[in-house]
Amino acid sequence: MSALSQYGLEFGSRRFRLGGLHSSTQEQHPNRRAGVRVLLNLPYAGTEEYRQELDLYLPERRSFPVVVFAHGGSWYRGNKAMHGYLGVFLAKHGIGAALVNYRLAPRVRHPVPAQDLARAFAWVHEHIAEYGGDPDRLFLSGHSAGGHLCSLLGTNEDFLAAENLSFGHVRGVISISGIYKIHWNMAVAGLRFVFHKVNKTAASPFWHVKPGSPPFLIIHGQKDLWTLGGQARAFHKRLLRNHGQSRLVVARGEDHDSIMQHAVLPTAEHSKEILRFIHEG
Predict the structure, then answer these.
(1) How far, in Å, are 17, 59, 77 from residue 265 at the CA level?
(2) For site-directed labelling of 94, which of 33, 65, 226, 252 has its Cα 20 to 30 A away?
(3) Cβ count within 10 A of residue 253
(4) What's the 3-state SS for 233-261?
(5) CA-CA distance, 167 to 183, in Å (whole number)?
(6) Which residues contact 255 (CB under 8 A, 6 or more apart)?
(7) Cα–Cα distances in Å, from 49 out to 104, 109, 116, 131?
(8) Distance (Å, whole) CA 89 – CA 107
(9) Cα separation, 254 vs 270, whole angstroms
(10) Beta carbons within 8 Å of 216's beta carbon, 6+ residues apart
(11) In terms of residue numbers, what domain contains 55?
(12) Measured between alpha carbons, how far is 186 from 263 in angstroms, rounded to an integer?
């Protein structure tokens, strides 16, 4: 049984926005036996821009912690619908999930995606109590480019301050296969256009680390994309040197894609670490 089918997602019966397709905001129950409520395409920025919408996956209980999650896709592709299985998994474990779309390159460049994520986080903080969640137990998370964005919000408080929030509103950051330094690696990866004419130091979470950041859980795959393991270790060490709280987890046998697919498997060590980090946070 695949990680997706194990968590009850019937993609053929759902109308997600993929490649510009539109689905209306509605509440659905992908698996009533799992006790999961799903609300799709909620606008978080007061616009009709579908790249500024989020999906909520909620457990059938109250006062639950919530993870605000940013998808990957090299900052120019990807969609919140890719990780619906993660939302179901978290909700089944008593954790709410807000899966976020953000605007993409080349239409926008840094810092717009990070600003969008901050706005989504602020929306969740303001509204999640209406859905039974605890606004005082909010986590930031993301994979790949999303890991970069959540780490940037967890190290550069200006993004949250623009939404009248602070590091104190973030219980923790879970970065999965994230990018922490933006430099020559973008050109090598064919992504020069994403950060064209952008201050790459300002766009790098690594260079914003200072005392006072929220706790971090940093995860990378043993077979992850080149440089990402080294970046994760360096970022983890920099957080510790600046009196931060950080735990580094190497997902054994996982590559850049499987690390997300297997994050919903109860037997996966990095899955256990994620749940422990949230429940203890």
Answers:
(1) 26, 18, 26
(2) 252
(3) 12
(4) HHHHHHHHHCCCCEEEEEEEEEECCHHHH
(5) 26
(6) 221, 223, 224
(7) 12, 16, 11, 23
(8) 32
(9) 10
(10) 151, 154, 172, 173, 174, 175, 236, 239, 244, 245, 246, 247
(11) 3-280
(12) 26
**pLDDT tens, residue by residue, 205-217:** 999 999 999 999 9
Both tokens of 237, joined, read 């060490």
Query: What's the length of the chain?
Result: 281
Instruction: Report CA torsion sign: 60, 134, 40, 274.
Output: negative
Question: pLDDT per residue over 47-91, tens digit each?
Answer: 999 999 999 999 999 999 999 999 999 999 999 999 999 999 999
How far is CA 232 from each of CA 10, 236, 279, rounded to the nearest angstrom?
Answer: 34, 6, 23
Q: Residue 155 sits in a domain of what CATH number?
A: 3.40.50.1820
Residue type at 117?
L
Buried b (16+ CB within 10 A) or exposed e, 125-155: beebeebbbeeebbbbbbbbbbbbbbbbbbb
Residues 6+ away with beta carbon under 8 Å from 108 = none
Residues 229-249 have pLDDT tens digits of 999 999 999 999 999 999 999
Q: How many structural domains does the chain have?
A: 1
pTM of the model: 0.90
Tokens of 262: 């297997």
Report which DSSP code applies to 130.
G
Which structure tokens are listed for 197?
Answer: 């004419």
Residue with tokens 């580094």: 248
